[in-house]
Amino acid sequence: MIENRFRLAVLLLSASVLLASCSCERATQLKVEPGPLFLLNGSGRLATFTVYGPRPGHKIATPYDTDSILWQIKAPEGYFTGKHVEGLRVKYGEIPINYVQAAPYASKAAPQLVQGNLYFVLAETTDAAVKSTMFYVGKDRPIEVDVPDLCIDQIGGHVSRLKCGTTEPYQEPADIDNFVRMHQVVQ
């Protein structure tokens, strides 16, 4: 009887240690709503939040291209000090409390988003995986879109848009509205 109690105690203690050591990471989630307003959830902390726009003459943003950053905020006390993303709401162009605007510089307002363009959003988080998405600025609301053939190559600080799996330049679709309808992310 005492031996069974001892075994049960050891089992419960082992289970407690395992649960306590679990990081319980929950992947970062990002949802785009009218505004645009970005709703975040997960177990991480928001280090930076960046919106990239299309290069001149294009309709689709170039992800990770520093020259294409339209708006960026960051945690001012350092990369690991951001707010928990669970329930965090970030409205484009509005700097959340305890963040600073890193782009555009000199406290300029974020540029207006253009209807008919696709933008790339990157939420860099600590303690959980980063999350990104592309969204289309529609007449009534933003629409999250998957752009399946767009890959990025970085060589010597220069960002190139390539058709995935090739060395060919990425060609934007001629009918962007139809492309959005075909590749809309269903939530």
* Element-level helix/strand string: HEEEEEEEEEEEH
Helical segment tally?
2
Helix content: 10-25%
Arithmetic mean pLDDT: 88
Profile the largest sheet.
Answer: 6 strands, antiparallel
Which class best fits the helix and strand makeup? alpha+beta
What overall geometry do the principal axes of the alpha carbons give? Answer: globular
Description:
The protein has 187 residues and is an alpha+beta fold. Helices cover 15% and strands 34% of the residues. It has one domain (24-183). The chain has helices at 2-21, 176-183, and strands spanning 29-33, 37-41, 45-52, 69-74, 88-91, 100-103, 118-126, 131-137, 142-145, 150-155, 158-163. The chain has a six-stranded antiparallel beta sheet with strand order 6-4-3-7-8-9, with no helix packed on it. The longest helix is centred in the first third of the chain and has 20 residues, at 2-21. The model is unreliable at 6-21 (pLDDT under 50).
What are the defining features of this structure?
six-stranded antiparallel sheet, 187 residues, alpha+beta, three-stranded antiparallel sheet, 2 helices
Secondary structure: elements and pairs:
Elements: H1 2-21, E1 29-33, E2 37-41, E3 45-52, E4 69-74, E5 88-91, E6 100-103, E7 118-126, E8 131-137, E9 142-145, E10 150-155, E11 158-163, H2 176-183
Antiparallel strand pairs: 1-2, 2-5, 3-4, 3-7, 4-6, 7-8, 8-9, 10-11
Summary of the model, kept short:
By secondary structure, the protein is an alpha+beta fold. The chain is built from 2 helices and 11 strands.
